[in-house]
Design brief:
Elements: E1 3-8, E2 11-14, E3 29-30, E4 45-50, E5 57-62, E6 66-80, E7 84-97, E8 102-107, E9 111-115, E10 120-125, E11 129-135, E12 138-143, E13 147-153, E14 156-161, E15 165-169, E16 174-177, E17 185-190, E18 195-200, E19 206-212, E20 217-219, E21 223-228, E22 235-242, E23 247-253, E24 258-263
Parallel strand pairs: 5-6, 6-7, 7-8, 7-9, 8-10, 9-11, 10-12, 11-13, 12-14, 13-15, 14-16, 15-17, 16-18, 17-23, 18-24, 19-23, 20-24
Antiparallel strand pairs: 1-4, 1-6, 2-5, 3-4, 19-22, 21-22
Length: about 270
Amino acid sequence: MPNVTVDLGNIVVTTPQSPQPARPPAQPRVAGGGAGAGVGSDTGITLDVKVPRYVQLDAIEARAGALNVSGIDGPVSIMSGSSDINVSRVGSLEVRARGGEVNVEDVGGLVYVVSTSSEINVKRSSGDVRVTTINGNIDIQCVKGRVDAGTSRGKITLTNVGGDVEATTTDSDINFTGAIAQNGRYRLKSMEGHVRMSIPDGSPGFTANLMSYNSDAVSDFAVRASTPRPDSQAMRRVEVRQGDGQAQITLDSFSQTVRLSKLAPGAAPACR
């Protein structure tokens, strides 16, 4: 049986009826409590819930503490206040949170996370990933589908993304590392941070437009056309074309440097 492990003071878990024979409810374990300890105690509770792998978790609501969900074949939906959320090996995932850290691994389908103030980490997803937070860093690794990532105050790190990418942030850096797809679309934009993209030298054909309004645009690949800054010899707009030029890359920063770099052979990070 998979585990839904909850460690918090106040939680609501809703699941549909299972065709399996019902088991007697497990007694909650009250951390540090003696006789008479209960939900209202300062020590909180730890609740372990075991369900069939194929169950659909329609709604898990967590207001504080930590929430861990793993081993569910179907979709999982979570609503959280300030809980730290850890999810692994689920069919698909939807998270709506106000705070806390969100860590996601090994999802078979769509990952959808919306948060007010969260660090969001996603590893190994077979579907698309769509994550948004107002305040917090975003780290996405080893995703086979498309990635849409946005944060107002935080850094975005993208590693080994198989599908198209749309990433935007206001006041921090964006870093992309890994291969690009033939006919892929990549748009990375920051207002106040650096924008860096590192791809293998032997990448499929692409056309890249690098733009920085108040700093430099730099490419390790041969430049097709460029526009210099008025006050120096540095470039503020660069166009690069490799091969058939089918993949489209846009790197854009208002205040800082944008850079398109070559990855040395064997330097591309591996998915684990």
